């Protein structure tokens, strides 16, 4: 699947964002190694801390269906620069995705930034830091 196709999938997911509080719609599309796409949108809550980002929605959907091998993640929002994932999502992405996996950040103007998981969260805390 081409990068622009994955961005289109993320854009479709963005249409389902439930954002009555921020009005800030985000969409994500997670490509598995065998070519399947899991879409995600952000889902907010009146108890603000329960808001779930688009990126984590897509990852948790895939994981809960037994899909764990990922090739790329695209994220899109209506931002001046390609949307930067929040710190919580960077941590979850770095736990569940390969460190050299491609992350594609986009906005509605067609600006695109491509980077890897380890570039998105350098020096991440990980399982290797637990125990001795
Ligand atoms: O990369 C991002 C950044 C923000 N949000 C969501 C969280 C919240 O619902 C809204 C405003 O922060 O956007 C995402 O889904 N992904
Ligand atoms: Zn996030």
Structure explained in plain terms:
This protein is α+β, with helices and mostly antiparallel strands and 132 residues long. The chain has a single domain (3-120), classed as Cytidine Deaminase, domain 2 (3-Layer(aba) Sandwich), CATH 3.40.140.10. Helix content is 28%, strand content 23%. The protein is built from 4 helices and 5 strands; from the N terminus they run αββαβαββα. It has helices at 3-14, 54-64, 87-96, 117-120; strands at 26-32, 37-41, 70-77, 102-107, 112-116. A 5-stranded mixed β-sheet has the order 2-1-3-4-5. A hairpin with a 4-residue loop joins β1 (26-32) and β2. The model has no long low-confidence stretch (mean pLDDT 97). Bound molecules: 2'-deoxyuridine and zinc ion. The site of zinc ion has 6 residues, from α3.
How many alpha or pi helices?
Answer: 4
What does the oligomeric state look like here?
single chain
Query: Any low-confidence stretches, pLDDT <50, length ≥5?
Result: none
Count of domains? 1
Strand composition percent: 15-25%
């Amino acid at each position: 699947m081409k990068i622009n196709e994955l961005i289109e999938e993320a854009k479709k997911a963005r249409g389902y964002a439930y954002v009555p509080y921020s009005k800030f719609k985000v969409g994500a599309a997670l490509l598995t190694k065998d070519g399947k796409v899991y879409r995600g949108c952000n889902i907010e809550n009146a108890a603000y801390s329960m808001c779930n980002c688009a990126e984590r929605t897509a990852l948790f959907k895939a994981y809960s269906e037994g899909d764990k091998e990922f090739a790329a993640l695209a994220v899109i929002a209506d931002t001046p620069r390609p949307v930067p994932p929040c710190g919580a999502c960077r941590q979850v992405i770095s736990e569940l995705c390969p460190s050299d996996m491609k992350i594609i950040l986009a906005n509605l103007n067609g600006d695109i930034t491509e980077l890897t998981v380890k570039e998105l969260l350098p020096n991440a805390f990980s399982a290797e830091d637990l125990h001795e």
